[in-house]
Amino acid sequence: SSGINAEWPLRPGCISDSMQKRFIADQLLNSTINDAEDLDVTAIWQVIDFYTESIVLTRENDVEQEAISLSKLGILYHKVLLQKGRAKEYLMKVLQLAHSLQPRNLSEEKWFRDASEIISEYQKEEKRKEEKEWEKSRKKYLDSLKSKLDILKHNMTELSIQKILVWLYTEHPPKHSGANKFNVNVKEISDAPGDSLKKLLAKAIVYYHPDKINAEDHGMEYKVWCEEIVKNLTRKYEMMKGC
Questions:
Q1: Cα–Cα distance, 98 to 113 (Å, whole number)
Q2: In this predicted structure, what is the pLDDT of residue 214?
Q3: Residue scoring higher pLDDT (35 or 5)
Q4: Whole-angstrom distance, CA of residue 153 vs CA of residue 146
């Protein structure tokens, strides 16, 4: 291909060979994508071979050049072959190599930005998937908690903050290990002045926070129940922030 035979600036040893193979891979990839109506899979595998050889030649010789070639290979799997698993494998390796280059600031390097953006995209996708699956699994627990949740909603609307906290601590005290320092005086809460309510709410949010709950020990229903308690307490706290 005419696009492959451009003049190449020579550098000594393996690094020069590696950069030349990456340069050839770049040219072949561009011509394959831009010139062909259909994807030439044979040419793409040639590109992969060139990038792979480039990576091998730099390994333990030049961390940055290895990261650049790995980034290009990962992007090919991401954008052209649409294989997220392989792309993530290579791009995570890029970020590991980048970490080894600290304290150097790589934010202006295209290979680092590209790898970081794609990995961030994958992480966001995984988080959305996990959240969707969690919401789906939560539904059955919300159904079984309906009567308790109705009371919770009523009390959050109709009772004072002091009475809400007394009700929670009396009727539904936190039982998970993260609450092992749970120690409240219900009488003091009942008589608490208005300027202490935000602090009391913040403490209650910590006591019931679901991140402290091991679902294997206390069950998923209890975890969901505490999630709902914290959601409601957080709304109360947000309402008081300007007070």
A1: 11
A2: 85
A3: 35
A4: 10
Phi, psi of 82 (to 5 degrees): 55, 40
Contact between 63 and 48 under an 8 Å Cβ cutoff? The reply is: no
Quickly count: other Cβ atoms within 10 Å of residue 232's Cβ: 20
Q: Cα-Cα-Cα-Cα dihedral of 140, 142, 143, 146, to 10°?
A: 160
Give 104-110's long-range contacts (Cβ < 8 A, gap of 24+): none
Q: Three-class SS of residue 80?
A: coil
Token look-up 């309402």 returns 239
206 burial via Cβ count (<10 Å: 0-12, 13-18, 19+): middle
The confidence band for 177, taking pLDDT boundaries of 50, 70 and 90, is low
Judged against a pLDDT cut of 60, whether residue 12 lies above it is answered with no
- As a whole number, mean pLDDT of residues 111-129 equals 95
> Taking the model in full, what pTM does it have?
0.60
**CA dist 131 → 135, 213, 231 (Å):** 6, 17, 16
Distance from C-alpha of 101 to C-alpha of 67, rounded to nearest angstrom:
10
Place of tokens 């007070």: 243
Neighbours of 34 (CB within 10 A): 8
